[in-house]
Amino acid sequence: MLLTPEGTARDSEGLAKWLVDHANRGDKLAFALGSSHGFDPELKKEVPEKLSLSPMTFPHELSRVLFLEQLYRAFTIIRGKDYHK
Questions:
Q1: What is the DSSP letter of 79?
Q2: Inside any domain, residue 84
Q3: Signal sequence: where (predicted)?
Q4: Residue 36 pLDDT > 90, yes or no?
Q5: What local confidence, expressed as pLDDT, does residue 82 receive?
Q6: In 20-77, at which residue ranges do the beta strands (DSSP E only) sit?
Q7: Does residue 39 have a pLDDT over 80?
Q8: Is residue 83 part of a domain?
Q9: What gap in Å lies between CA 6 and CA 9, rounded to an integer?
Q10: Is 70 exceeded by the pLDDT of residue 85?
Q11: Coil, helix or strand at residue 3
């Protein structure tokens, strides 16, 4: 999955469902965070899954933290635990 502003926006529950759906199919997952220049257009054509963290621009390091926090929330939801909204 490419993390790019052009990707699909999902809420935490939507990301959790997406992860469960792919896990149930036995898919191996990989996430790629692009540089400030984004991804090569050819790569964007090859990778079907794209996720947008926000339409705003963030530094690479902050984007990584935002995504890791969303993964934490998604796995918390999957485990049926409460999470802060």
A1: T
A2: no
A3: none
A4: no
A5: 80
A6: 32-33, 50-52
A7: yes
A8: no
A9: 9
A10: no
A11: strand
Looking at residues 29-45, what average pLDDT do you find? 91
Q: Is residue 42 part of a domain?
A: yes
Q: Read off the pLDDT of each residue in 64-82 and give the average, rounded to a whole number.
A: 94
Q: Strand, coil or helix: what is 28? A: coil
50 assigned to some structural domain: yes
Contact 6, 64 (CB under 8 A): no
Look up residue 82 and give its amino acid: D
CATH of the domain at 23: 3.40.1280.10
pLDDT of 84: 67
Q: Phi and psi dihedrals of 74, rounded to 5?
A: -60, -45
The token pair that represents 33 in the structure block: 């965070």
Please give the residue range of the domain that contains residue 31.
Answer: 2-78
**Global pTM?**
0.84
Angle between the N-to-C axes of helices 12-24 and 60-78, in degrees from 0 to 180, rounded to the nearest 10 = 70
